[in-house]
Amino acid sequence: MHEHEHGSHKHEDELHKHEIEHLLEHWIEHNKSHSESFRARAKEIEAASPKAAAKVREAADLMDACTRKLEEAAGEV
């Protein structure tokens, strides 16, 4: 049986707090960029396919929901 030590010892594959903060910040900014792009493109898609444009806007809303979860995670670090 393999036992893990807990307490002040860290596993080698664990991220440091500043690394986690940096990663979450990167993902948050990346998602915001995608969300903005989706909304801009939805306007361009609208004339050709209103249904597709609606789905792209829905994807932007879902991306925003993901971003909110990442922001919540960042608040937990």
Written account of the structure:
There is one protein chain. With 77 residues, this protein is an all-alpha fold. Residues 1-7 have low confidence and may be disordered. It contains two helices and no strands. It has helices spanning 17-46, 50-76. It has one domain. It starts with 16 loop residues before the first helix and ends with a helix.
Order of SSEs: HH
Number of domains: 1
The chain-level mean pLDDT equals: 89
> What is the terminal separation in angstroms?
31 Å
The coarse silhouette is elongated
The amount of beta strand, in percent, is under 5%
| Poorly predicted runs | 1-7
Radius of gyration (Å): 19 Å
Largest sheet: none
Helix content: over 70%
SS field, number of helical segments: 2
Alpha-beta content class: mainly alpha
| Secondary structure tally: strands | 0
Q: Which short descriptors sum up this protein?
A:
77 residues; mainly alpha; 2 helices; 0% strand; elongated
Nutshell version of this structure?
By secondary structure, the protein is mainly α.
Topology:
Elements: H1 17-46, H2 50-76
Helix pairs in contact: 1-2
